[in-house]
Design a protein that fits this description.
By secondary structure, the protein is of the alpha/beta class. Helices cover about 45% and strands about 15% of the residues. It is globular and about 50 Å long. InterPro entries: KR_dom, NAD(P)-bd_dom_sf, Sc_DH/Rdtase_CS, SDR_fam.
Amino acid sequence: MSLDGVVALVTGGSRGIGRATAQRFAAEGATVVVHYVSNKAAAQETLDSLGAGAHEMRQADLKDPGQVKDLVDLTIARHGTIGVLVNNAGVYENHPVLETSYDEWQEIWRRTLDTNLVGPANLVHAVVPHMVAAGGGRIINITSRGAFRGEASHPAYGASKAGLNSFSQSLAKALGPHNIFVTAIAPGYVETDMAAPYLNGPRGAEIRNETAIGRIATADEVGRLVVFLATPGTESMTGGVIDINGASYLRT
């Protein structure tokens, strides 16, 4: 498997799934653009881990449509193309409906939807004309099992990820004729910094035991799946939502 000559833009690439995905792409010969929001030092660590090549990192607040467009325009100006877009960046904020003030509720819903759903939608809109001009491409959206099972304390997160699943399927229908293939990956808990407070908390053992394999996924496992879906020969998977949760939640 080789992705020589492919330019992959990975959002939220400074840590966790994004970092593992960037590393996997680089290992297969792709040029990686590591997007980050605020943690420049962590993004630099990711970039340094990719080895030789034209890899770079770029900052953008995905809630800002102007910054999203600049991210794409600057990437195209340097590399000439974006062959793979991985929408991985996301936020996960606690806001139980009966314990959250109305003002906080508004802020969290707006921030979550803008980051997890509208930001990816804007990135897609900016990227796909370049993919069409190049003859095709891949879009891989990182969603969540929370889109299916419900998120009692994080309802905006669950709603945003359900929306991203639906968006992925709509894109697969719209863009398939242009040789642009779109898939979504829906992880459960993954061994990342974002999940650490839950995995290291009082429910850590319970969370791990929800799976049929006695552990949760690693970021590298998710990264491997992303790169697989970006590889020629997986075109018929377009429109798919692929679970990676150790059988902790099974859809019917």
